Amino acid sequence: MCGFIGKISLESINKEELEIANELIHCRGPDSKKYEFFEENELSFSLIFNRLSILDLSESADQPMSSNGGNSILMFNGEIYNHLQLRKELEAKNIKFHTSHSDSEVVLKGLEYYGKKFISKLRGQFSIFYVDKRKRNILLARDRVGQKPLYYHISNNTLVFGSNLIAVSKLVKNKTISQGSINEYLMNGVISSPDTIFENIKKLKPSELIEISYENNLKKKDNELFWDISSFVDSKPFQNDEFFSILSDAISVRNSADVPIANFLSGGLDSTSIIKNTTNFNTNINTFNVEIDSKKYDESYWAKLVSEKYETNHASIKLSSNISIENVLFALESLDEPYSDPSLIPSYLICKEMSKKYKVAISGDGGDELLGGYKRFQNSLINSNKFKMLFSKLYDVYPPFLGTGNIFSSKSDDLETRYKSYLEDNKLLKLLKSNFFESKIGTLFKDYSIDDNYKLLQLIEYKFFLSEMMMFKVDRTSMANSLEVRSPFVDHLLIEYILSHTNNYFSPTNPKKILSDYLLDDFGPKFVTRKKQGFVFDIETWVFENIELIKESINNGTFVKNMNPEVINTLSINKSRINAQRIWKLFVLENYLFRINS
Predict the structure, then answer these.
(1) How far apart are alpha carbons 162 and 108 in whole angstroms?
(2) pLDDT at 534 (0 to 100)
(3) Residue 75 falls within a domain, yes or no?
């Protein structure tokens, strides 16, 4: 797992500027740094790669990696879990390798031999930059569910690209902030691909390929997707043994590394199932848990039960519910885009602790999207409202300072309205007197004409929440601490299986019954049926105990003050959790805008 940045231009390139921009990416790969500067067809290429050494620790596996007499060049961030099988396939075609087991060289040789169609053979997480000098072609690619980031800007025969948005922005002149993107952030808490907060910088969408030719100038071809998640929707008979066979393989391949591996252990169904499955092939398992001093959010008791049952090497990290402002600001430094989920704070802190001993960690992320585990998912499937007009009118008159109005819109007889009510906050836009923003979630509902509401919501969970929000948090909080996180539940073979089979594994009263049954004999009914907690901290207490500091930060900024300078006072009238999250959202935005302008 690594990070890279590059600039390609007909004009001369300031290497010192590139080096300064790279300082923001260094944390993604602190083990080694390698440069590549060359001229090709009147273009100047300047590349920097930062490596986090996990697989094949030799210098021969460093990047940028060249092959075919220097005619092919690769920078690759990620892990390919089927690299050994792909290597054998390529060796059978008499392709020679120079490293012992580098997955990077497999990507390089595969792209040389197959071209861009090789991307669809990769099982893993990745962002890729590849140059084919013979064809005078540049390829950018991102993995299927957006685990690894890749940003780019192209104009005036100049291409800038890299793993960090702020780093890329430092190499782009005349960049402007997008008000539409800010509105999306205010509504959803994130800016979804292909957009960024900058008008003229984009990010690749999950599973997207971009080709750029440089025959006489830089010319971007049409974007394409190498994986269409909706194409797998089917209703084949679901089989437990088939599901667990794929899950077991997804866990097993993610336990391959040349460095020690740790496991996140919340004590929930997802992480516990991974630990139980891992005992089938590994008896020396390392686990980490966060112990929060607030009983309302602490799950360390359950994590300890799991650790004792499977005899793991367990470490519990104590976390105060009153997290210091210093730790909060350190965590916010990990964000190269504004992102409002407050769980990024404990995520950042546990990654920081784990990285003191480990470079790789396995997590249970993606289990809720795979098996319908979120409450919003379950509630959205229920349509019991007989008073649509009444609830609609109540939502319209509901004061924005009280909350999102979800209590009313979630009762609509329209599936889209019910679902969006859990993720969108149009009332905050109204409170800020901001312009209307067309819902990207709504666009997804229009894109998919599927009668099966369960699978429709699954697709939207993957296309929006998992790829744009969950994977963003996992990547940024871990890589800021030079920690690679691997998530078996987002394995594309597992996702394809779930979407193409019936959902008889799902029960509204026990949504992850398949995992509950798997763990029942080991822990009993109290363990497997308890209420889902999630990885959170007491944002309500933290915000209102630090409200004066937050006000000062926002008042020293420009955005919120220009929109509605009284908004924080207004939101503080009703000291609810939702208003705490809204204040947090604004605090994060102002902090981000200050950093990119300083």
Answers:
(1) 18
(2) 63
(3) yes
